[in-house]
């Protein structure tokens, strides 16, 4: 019954809730620097949410995302778990942040199989094309809107990738299910177009896509009982990307609609962000999306005006800011 209060290693207690962190430590968690390492996974998540909400400047958001991409914090408003950028192919995504791009999702080129699963008694094959989603602010003084327009145009005309661009801030009209349009103006723009007759003025905010009416498949699998049958077996779609229709926008987590998201990424809302989704077109393509994007940013004259060193420094400050949200020791447990 008596507790052992000897001089051996103390129990690892969470700094905030004082619960034992042992079970957290047994899990395969990434190692954390600074104060994050003294928190249990639940408290850490709560603090991360507050941290993201506290970053109201785009620079802070870039700093927080850098932290996330480098695996120093384990949650982001757009994703539940640790970042999935383990491949060398995409291991320096943060370099794109120097242009002000916030990379929120990506997938690498991948393929395996057919391999036999003893458990399922089947031959399994998988393949994935590279894909990426990033956000870019349209109201930031360091990024000229003309450059953004040019970048978007460059992406949309390419034959080797499929691209979709839309404003996270605007609301778009829904189309009949059988209608596929390459460009759809948001409601506000439609009204402006009637009033001012300058309908192409802000193409940046149009929903625009180079996807065809049939959604672009980026992840497929197939299973067969007998190995020699695998080549005859049709692929099954596991994931489509980017969005092929404006109708998918509202089902998506958009900043203009979703309250949680708004709360979590204020800087994105204030900066009227554009969301850009892109995927490699052919299965055997060797296109490197990151290199392609960097090249196009340079081509249109976007400059690396956001310092990665500043982002590293900014990460420390919001961290300290987070502590000001720290619940009182005497408060509820
Ligand atoms: Zn805790």
Description:
It contains nine helices and ten strands. The model is unreliable at 316-333 (pLDDT under 50). A hairpin with a 4-residue loop joins strand 2 and strand 3. Helices cover 28% and strands 18% of the residues. The radius of gyration is 23 Å and the shape is globular. It is of the alpha+beta class and 333 residues long. The strands form two sheets. It has a six-stranded antiparallel sheet. The longest helix has 16 residues, at 308-323. It has helices at residues 22-26, 41-54, 58-69, 145-157, 187-196, 259-264, 266-270, 289-300, 308-323; strands spanning 102-107, 110-117, 122-128, 131-137, 161-167, 183-184, 207-209, 217-224, 236-240, 273-280. Helix 2 (41-54) crosses helix 9 (308-323), helix 3 crosses helix 9 (308-323) and helix 4 packs across helix 8 (289-300). Zinc ion (ZN) binds at residues 14, 16-17, 19, 39-40, 42-43.
